[in-house]
Design brief:
seven-stranded mixed beta sheet; FAD/NAD(P)-binding domain; three-stranded antiparallel beta sheet
Length: 392
C-alpha cells in the first residue's frame, strides 16, 4: 500500500479537534487509544448545550454498543501523526510532500494509478489496482473525477486556539445563541492539562450571504460580551490565528465510487450534519473501504460496487435524520424549549447528548413512548416555567 500525502508530518489541520465517542471506538479497535492516554489526553465525559433562551443543559452519555461514554480533544497535528505512524508500522509506504493530481485511465476507462507532483515540479506515477481518495472537503484529487460541485462547501467553520478560557475543563460546550443560528459556536477544552482551548463557530454559506457578513464577523461577535459564551472568554486571548475550513453537509448517493476509486471521509461528504464532526465517519468509511478492497482482490473488481451500498446502509438514514433535526433546532424557540426540557430530566438529557455525539440514531426521537413522556402535563408545565438564564 502506498499513501500520498501533500503535507509533511507532523502537520497542523484546521479542525474542532473533538474526538467523539464513535471515533474513540474506532481508535480503540485500531489499538491506538492507549497512545492517547499515554500522551496525557484526558477523557471528557460531559457535554453541555446552551440554547437560544440562555439556559443550559449538561449531561454525559451512556455506553452503547461498545461505544464508550467519553470523548477526547486531540489536535490534528498529533492525531494524524499518530495515524500515519500506525500505517507505517503496518507496512505501508508513506510519501510526504507530494500532491496527487489525477488518475490514469485506459481506453476502457479503468484507472491504473495516480500521477503525483513533487515540490520541485517533477511528477511520477504510482500504479494501483484500487485508489482511495481521502483528501477532504477541498481535495483537488477528488475534484478531478467527481461531478462538478460535488465538494462545493455549504458550511464554513472557523476556529482559533485560545488561552485563559475559564470553566470549561470538564465538558465539550455548544452554543446556540440566536445570532449564531442556523449555525453554532463551540468551546472545547484543551485535551491535556494546560493546553489551549479550541474555540470556533460554524455557519451555512447561504446564511452568511443573506446577512452580507463574513464568518470572522460572526466569530468576533461570539468572542464579545453579548455572547452567552462571554463568561468563559472574558479573559481569554487568541494564541493561534483563526483559520477557516469548509464543510460539505449534503448527502448525495452515488458519489463515493467511480470505477476503482473510492472516496472516504470528508471527500465522500461524510460529516455529521448535527455536530459537524467528521473523524468518526472518516475512520469508519476507511474501514469499510478496506474491507471492500480486500474482497475485490479475492473475488474481482466488481465487488467494489458493494462499497457504495455499505456506506448508505451505515450512514444514510442517520445522516438524513440528523440533517432534519438540525433544521428544526435552528428555530430559536424550539432549541430553547428543548434545552429547558432536557435540563429537567437527566434521562432525556443523556439521550439527547447521545444523539449529538452520534451514538444514538436521531430516529429514536420518533418513538411514541418518548413523546408520551415528553408531553406529560407535569413536564410541560415545568418546561414552560421561566427560570433564570445560565450565562456562560
Amino acid at each position: 500500500m502506498v499513501v500520498l500525502e501533500r503535507a509533511t508530518f507532523p502537520r497542523s489541520k484546521v479542525c474542532g479537534d473533538g474526538v467523539a465517542p464513535r471515533a474513540v471506538r474506532a481508535l480503540h479497535d485500531m489499538g491506538l487509544e492507549q497512545e492517547l492516554e499515554q500522551a496525557g489526553y484526558r477523557r471528557i465525559r460531559a457535554f453541555r448545550v446552551v440554547g437560544s433562551w440562555g439556559e443550559a443543559v449538561k449531561a454525559g452519555i451512556r455506553r452503547r454498543n461498545c461505544t464508550p461514554d467519553y470523548a477526547y480533544v486531540v489536535p490534528r497535528s498529533h492525531l494524524d501523526d499518530m495515524l500515519v505512524a500506525a500505517v507505517r508500522r503496518r507496512g505501508a509506504r508513506v510519501i510526504e510532500g507530494v500532491r496527487a493530481q489525477g488518475a490514469l485511465t485506459q481506453t476502457r476507462g479503468s484507472r491504473l494509478g495516480v500521477t503525483a507532483l513533487k515540490a520541485d515540479g517533477s511528477t511520477f506515477v504510482v500504479k494501483a489496482r484500487v485508489v482511495v481518495a481521502a483528501d477532504g472537503s477541498r481535495g483537488s484529487f477528488s475534484r478531478s473525477f467527481l461531478p462538478r460541485g460535488a465538494l462545493t462547501p455549504n458550511v464554513i467553520a472557523l476556529r482559533a486556539y485560545m488561552a485563559g478560557v475559564e470553566e470549561v475543563d470538564d465538558a465539550l460546550h455548544f452554543f446556540l445563541d440566536k445570532p449564531l443560528l442556523p449555525g453554532y459556536g463551540w468551546i472545547f477544552p484543551g485535551g491535556r492539562r494546560g493546553a489551549p482551548a479550541n474555540v470556533g463557530v460554524g455557519m451555512p454559506v447561504p446564511a452568511l450571504r443573506r446577512r452580507n457578513m463574513g464568518l470572522r464577523d460572526v466569530f468576533s461577535w461570539f468572542l464579545g460580551p453579548e455572547s452567552v459564551a462571554a463568561a468563559h472568554l472574558a479573559r481569554a486571548r487568541i494564541i493561534d490565528p483563526p483559520q477557516a475550513f469548509p464543510l460539505q453537509l449534503r448527502y448525495v448517493r452515488g458519489r463515493r465510487r467511480v470505477g476503482p476509486i473510492l472516496t472516504v471521509g470528508d471527500a465522500a461528504n461524510l460529516i455529521n450534519p448535527l455536530s459537524g464532526e467528521g473523524i468518526a465517519y472518516a475512520l469508519e468509511s476507511g474501514r469499510i473501504a478496506a474491507d471492500a478492497i480486500m474482497h475485490a482482490f479475492v473475488s474481482g473488481p466488481r465487488v467494489l460496487s458493494s462499497y457504495e451500498r455499505r456506506i448508505d446502509k451505515a450512514f444514510a438514514v442517520d445522516y438524513l435524520e440528523g440533517y432534519a433535526l438540525r433544521r428544526i433546532l435552528s428555530v430559536p424557540w424550539v432549541n430553547g424549549g428543548v434545552v429547558r426540557l432536557l435540563s429537567r430530566d437527566e434521562r432525556l438529557a443523556m439521550g439527547a447528548m447521545g444523539i449529538l455525539t452520534n451514538t444514538i440514531p436521531p430516529g429514536r426521537l420518533l418513538q411514541p413512548s418518548l413523546w408520551t413522556a415528553i408531553l406529560a402535563p407535569s413536564r410541560l408545565r415545568a418546561t414552560l416555567h421561566r427560570v433564570r438564564p445560565a450565562r456562560g
